Amino acid sequence: MTEQTYAFLAGFPTPETIDAAYDASDLVRAIAVYKHFFPAVSGYALFDGNLAIGVVPNRVFGTMDTRPDQRGLTLNSDTPYASVILDLSDGALVVDLPAGPILGALLNADQSWIADVGIPGPDNGEGGRFVILPPGASADDVAAQSELERTFFVRATTPTVIAGLRAVPVDADVDAAIALMKRTVVTPLDSRAPWEQPRWIDLTGTRQDTSPNRVQGTAAYWDTLLRYITEQGTTPADQTALAELAVLGIRAGEPMPADERTVSILKHAAVEADAQMRVQSLADRRQDRVAWPDRHWEWVSLRPENASFDLDGHLDVTARETWFYQAIASSPAMFRRQAGGGSVYWFCARDSANAYLDGGSAYTLTVPLPVPAKLFWSITVYDAQTRSQIATQQGNAALRSMFELRSHLDADEVTLHFGPTPPEHADHRWVQTIPGSGWFVYFRIYGPSEGAFDGNWRPGDFIRQPHGERTA
To answer: What confidence category does residue 147 fall into, taking pLDDT thresholds of 50, 70 and 90?
Structure first.
């Protein structure tokens, strides 16, 4: 590392040292703030992407059988999604969830967790009513409605909330899963409030981008951040970062700083911080990332205890940064490492020789059967640049137990294929990759059983094939 040289005369800084020290100090502030607010900026990218395709808070909700053309951080095609974006500015809202195999969570605008719903939630997939109280709602508001049956009261920390819902397509029936989610009903807690029942639109096949790729690493990142702190307010966890923002001249409701020095520092910080987060997320060096010592698989989440990334009373900042650079949302059901109704994810970006997965080479992956999944399992390929499902001519980024692999699950193992061209006799067990582009995968188990955690089951490593040389 190059060390900054500072000069002092009789204990006082020279003019050059004054400028250099202030620039370095503000650059450090901006880098730290960029990382802290990345989940919020990514959350706003999610809102903006949904708004661009017709989803409107409290008015229009959307359902989608997700495919690679629909870009978003580590979205997958395992289940259809429903985007239900809510605005609590006029008071608490009630979300009535139908009974059935729904998996979901309620999230604040910065993607922090409010509550799990459906199978992993307090309703246990049996249906229930979730009353979402806005920031500042009084205890009287709760007490007045306490007589409601099967009602779960939760409190948001931002006026904008997203109810991210997914439904398991039982017997591969995607249409039935979508129909189930559309039975979700949203109404005001105050029955006297004016309200028009929201309508649902089908977003399947609609191109979209809900990722932060458009703004990350650029000056536009700071514009989005200013919108967030102006429109959503902040939480106690943001206070230190807000103080640092104020030093940089960024304050809620005020114009962005326009002086040349600050603009230059903010641009520099965006590039530096984003590069650091990319390295941390895709080349993690933490020892607790390792899932199995003899394999190159890693835990996707480094904090399985909770959804707040809390570790012994303090924030595990690197675990939080690593997660949100790759993914959206936070939920205990996605993080916990125990058998039950949630899920567990593993990440892999390297082959058996510890080389990064290369889109111009062919690989095989052997998965022992049965996989310890009470519901289903999948493996999804992501573009390393966008962290979104890989988009190829094949039009498919996943191999799923409920779909492509249904006829291959009666053996002791199944061999999966990955590469730029289809292997012979792949029989729906191949995902196409792109020469010149790196890729990584998530292995997901839904409803994991004990075998997912006790070491008795583990997937193999990716094996590069001898005739899988780079093709570009």
So the answer is: low
